[in-house]
Amino acid sequence: MVVKAEDSQGYKPQGAEIANAMNEAGTRMRELTRQYHAGDITAEYLSKEADKIVAEHTQNPIVRTVIPQLVSHAALSALLESKNPEAIKPQIAHHTQALVATNSPHAEEVARALEVLGDYWTSEEIETAANKAVDNAEYYLARPAHKMDQASQDQPDNEVPLEELQDSRSRAKADIGSGIKQLEAILER
To answer: Domains of the chain: which residue ranges?
Structure first.
């Protein structure tokens, strides 16, 4: 499968290349979050390594938008699950900004982060991030059905049944909708 995007030199990344980059970044982030939760690394180290992963994938026009979202989401989720998120506000702020900047639909994580950042960020920063996160999530929800449905039907060797893809999308939409409500509550304060 050729992805219909190219860089200034006419390079078109292949689907397998994108999948491999996402798998590599995801695997590295899972290991970093495991180490963080085990207490083997600090929040600062997790954040620095996450930024390195993003920097390594900036050459590819498709991956350079997907990888930052994947990495920021993983880092932010890990940081928010820490025993004392109040102590690591700079890292939470950094990955919240990165997640919002990638047009991520992960509204629930942004809402959780904004609750922690309430006295760290100004009300304007909170409002800007919340509004952008709502816009990102609403844009995602308004998109037509994902083309994965058709891809599953076209590829009989696909290991993920169509019903599972649809169930996964339904759960994601419910989570995103919940996140929008949380962000709207933050904006009403």
So the answer is: 1-91, 103-189
